[in-house]
Write a structure and sequence with these properties.
By secondary structure, the chain is α/β, with parallel strands linked by helices. The protein contains 14 helices and 12 strands. GO terms for molecular function: L-aspartate:2-oxoglutarate aminotransferase activity; pyridoxal phosphate binding.
């Protein structure tokens, strides 16, 4: 018996640059110390206070089936949070709670796409984006951006990717993983005009909205005429260091959310109640609590930029948010994948090749700022020295 084409074609084939990550994990499993600057996993784990609330809720009996759309108080709190931050009227009827942001991404594309319809996404991209589109039955179409333009999408690139064939959706992510770039009002205006002109859904992944270092986060749902065509993905994972708890949400028009609740009934059947109770407690702690969780990444970004700006071989892309830095290593003469592999072999420092996030990031690497300040400073110093050595050989 054969597996379905939908599953066999999910990843598009090939390693997509993730071989370096798997190699680093194998080295660690074999006992070799490795400094991992790979995935976006907080080094400071979920707050004990959140875990206490999780434990309290479980012990109190909230361990049975929970309301599939999400418990009412959590839906209302998410809605109030979104309305306060965007100014867009939002009620519980506009929110469905999902098992993490990834589930929300899949649900959004299930809402937007019929089988065989095209769906656009920006390159560089979070690694699961094209597979999520394929899993929802869509045809994944990348929209290239340029390192020299700070990976900001242009109308020309969007139009070229669309071509003469219609597309049903465009997926964006700001603040962006992997680049750290924030899309400002001008870029989001271009995106809004494009989706309106082509009668498309806009799926906006905003899971890093609490990690903003420069400028401000603007949700495209707040732009004129966009609330009725925008689906916003949110999550507790990054804002509250609850990556393993799998509590996310999708915000959108009431009629679409009603259909997505039906989807949840037939797929996930909701999120455990004690996890939702913990998420509700965490959200009620307010902005100061979220800022405390974000603070290490702002500090580490600033620290690392000081190191990078003191040399001229490796170039850092402007990182206005998120827990990453994208570095241009083309001056070394190596691809991003080759550089990351050589750095791992020579110095046991693991980074993600830009190629693992799409063709637009070739010749780059991504650093996740997810080790303590001292370890990060030492690893970056070694990385820069290694890059200088390679560049001198390539000259």
């Amino acid at each position: 018996m054969n597996v379905s084409h939908r599953l066999s074609g999910l990843t598009g084939g090939g390693s997509d640059g993730w071989d370096v990550f798997y190699k680093a994990r194998a080295m660690k499993a074999a006992g070799t110390p490795v400094v991992e600057l790979t995935i976006g996993e907080h080094d400071i784990r979920t707050s004990p206070a959140i875990l206490d609330e999780m434990h309290r809720a479980a012990r109190a009996g909230h361990t049975g089936y929970a309301a599939v759309p999400g418990i009412p108080d959590l839906r209302a709190t998410v809605a109030a949070r979104v309305q306060a931050r965007t100014g867009v009227p939002t009620g519980p009827q506009n929110v469905v709670i999902t098992p993490g942001g990834q589930s929300a991404l899949f649900a959004a594309h299930m809402a937007a796409l019929d089988p065989g319809e095209r769906a656009l996404y920006l390159d560089p991209y979070y690694a699961t984006y094209p597979g999520t589109i394929r899993g929802a039955g869509g045809v994944a179409v990348s929209v290239p951006t340029q390192s020299e333009a700070d990976f900001q999408p242009t109308r020309a690139a969007l139009d070229a990717a669309l071509g003469d064939a219609p597309a049903r959706s465009l997926l964006i992510n700001t603040p962006n993983n992997p680049t750290g770039v924030i899309y400002g009002a001008e870029t989001l205006g271009i995106i809004a005009d494009f989706t309106c002109a082509n009668d498309m859904w806009l799926i906006s992944d905003e899971v890093y909205d609490t990690q903003v270092w420069d400028g401000a986060h603007l949700s495209p749902r707040a732009l004129p005429g966009m609330a009725e065509r925008t689906l916003v993905v949110g999550s507790m994972s990054k804002s509250h260091a609850m990556t393993g708890s799998r509590v996310g949400w999708l915000v959108g028009p009431e009629d679409i959310i009603a259909h997505l609740i039906n989807l949840s009934t037939h797929t996930t059947y909701g999120v455990p109640g004690f996890l939702q109770d913990a998420a509700l407690w965490a959200l009620r702690q307010g902005d100061a609590f979220e800022a405390e969780i974000a603070a290490p990444f702002r500090r580490r970004r600033d620290q690392t930029l000081v190191q990078i700006n003191a040399q001229d071989i490796v170039r850092a892309l402007p990182s206005g948010g998120a827990m990453y830095l994208m570095l241009d290593v083309r001056a070394t003469g190596l691809s991003g994948e080759a550089f990351a592999d050589a750095l791992l072999d020579a110095h046991h420092i693991a980074t993600m090749p830009g190629e693992s996030f799409g063709a637009s990031a070739a010749g780059h690497i991504r650093l996740a700022l997810t080790v303590d300040d001292a370890a990060l400073r030492s690893a970056v110093e070694t990385l820069l020295q290694f890059a200088a050595h390679l560049a001198s050989k390539a000259a």
